[in-house]
Amino acid sequence: MHGTPRPPATPAQALAAMDHLIAAHLIGQQELARRLGLNVTDLTCFAFVLEAGDELLTAGDLAARAHVTTGAVTGILNRLERAGYVTRRPDPADRRRVRVAAVQDAVARVEAVYAGHYKRLNALFSDYSPEELAIITDWFTRATALAHEYLEKLNRNDPDEEC
Amino acid sequence: MHGTPRPPATPAQALAAMDHLIAAHLIGQQELARRLGLNVTDLTCFAFVLEAGDELLTAGDLAARAHVTTGAVTGILNRLERAGYVTRRPDPADRRRVRVAAVQDAVARVEAVYAGHYKRLNALFSDYSPEELAIITDWFTRATALAHEYLEKLNRNDPDEEC
DNA sequence: CGCAATCCCTTAGTTCGTGAGATATTCGGA
DNA sequence: TCCGAATATCTCACGAACTAAGGGATTGCG
After folding, report:
1. Which interval of the chain is the signal sequence (chains A, B) (predicted)?
2. Contact in structure between A135 and B128 (CB atoms under 8 Å)
3. Model pTM?
4. CB contact (8 A) between residue B112 and residue A26
5. Secondary structure class of B127 (helix, strand, coil)
6. What is the total count of domains within chain A?
7. pLDDT class for B120, splitting at 50, 70, 90?
8. Average pLDDT, whole number, for chain B?
9. Which of A147, A163, B58, B112 falls 20 to 30 Å from A121 in CA-CA distance?
10. Is B86 strand, coil or helix?
């Protein structure tokens, strides 16, 4: 598909396309979580744990990223731990903290479930030239920055103010 | 930003960017719903109602689109109706059916809350040339098609098979 | 050293979804 | 025309998961 001309698009069309993708992705997440014996929140938190890598997250970090209370995190970790996805580890430097480590087996289990879709997505990506990919990634990066900026605005302002 | 060269990206980077965007979007949806006195499910359903326009959806249509049971839709419609977002209307052709119509005032209320973010997103989109936008929209469209294809695979197959 | 702050957990209460089944309506075939 | 099956929505009981409030342990600053 490299170099193939595409019909130009308007911002409105792009917005609509984006909404549809997000909606589809959400349903997919639910289904994936179900197959892993988790709910969407738990799966999302496990993804945060994986993303953090060796810099093990604390329970509080998870609460902040997932935007839930620390009480909820207790439940999330209980479920993830019981299902064999993570383990709680003491923090040697601060005994109030709980560090969350991913279980290696579970990583493979999750990757197996994601594999099919990721393979297809990768195929889709490799159907674009590096220059085209750069445009797409650039857009994602900027859109995400925008979304975060928006979130901060929402959290700062009175609950009824326009943002 | 037209024509400005950007660093090339790999599929993996693009995938990560996509995940982050969707995660941020989800949190944003929660906050927006909260401001409208709704939960995310209800807001999503209201969006489906708006998207359908004059072709009023039935309660069953909503259940299918939101992937919830018809029992849940009853609750969703009760909440949306009580909060003044929609009204239930009899279907003249089939008295078993319930048609869902958006309340005009509520449309404006929702648009006001969305306005800020949508304006910013639009600004972002209009920062790209039509050709660049075409690439982005094309990618969204194809990624959505992929996601739907994946969903169908998931729904068809045994719950444990690879897809 | 002592007190406030921090971190995670516990508990009670609420909300929302599912699954099973009830009720009302429509449709198709004898 | 009539009756049984299918369809559409609603009701109810129950369970899962979140919040808010507060408790106990630990830390760190004055």
Report:
1. none
2. yes
3. 0.89
4. no
5. coil
6. 1
7. confident
8. 87
9. A147
10. strand
Range of the domain at B72: 21-104
Q: Please indicate, yes or no, if residue A44 is contained in any of the structural domains.
A: yes
Give dist(CA A136, CA A127) in Å, integer.
12
- Is A76 a member of any domain? yes
Mean pLDDT estimate for chain A: 87
Q: Which amino acid would we find at residue A68?
A: V
Q: Do B140 and A17 touch (CB under 8 A)?
A: yes
**The pLDDT of residue B122:** 86
Q: Which one of A6, A65, A68 makes the best mutation probe of the B interface by having the most chain B beta carbons within 10 Å?
A: A6
- The count of residues in chain A is 163
B-chain residues near A24 (CB < 8 A): 144, 147-148, 151
Of A31, A134, A137, the CB nearest to B151: A31
A36 contacts A113 by C-beta, under 8 angstroms = yes
AA identity, residue B47: A
CATH number of the CATH domain containing B46: 1.10.10.10
For residue B3, pLDDT over 50 is answered with no
For residue A4, is it within any domain?
no
Show residues of chain B in contact with A159, CB under 8 Å.
34-35
Tell me: the pLDDT tens digits for A48-75?
999 999 999 999 999 999 999 999 999 9
- Minimum distance, in Å, between the CA of residue A151 and any CA atom of chain B: 6
The helix (run of H) or strand (run of E) holding residue A57 is: strand A57-58
pLDDT band at B89 (very low <50, low <70, confident <90, very high): very high
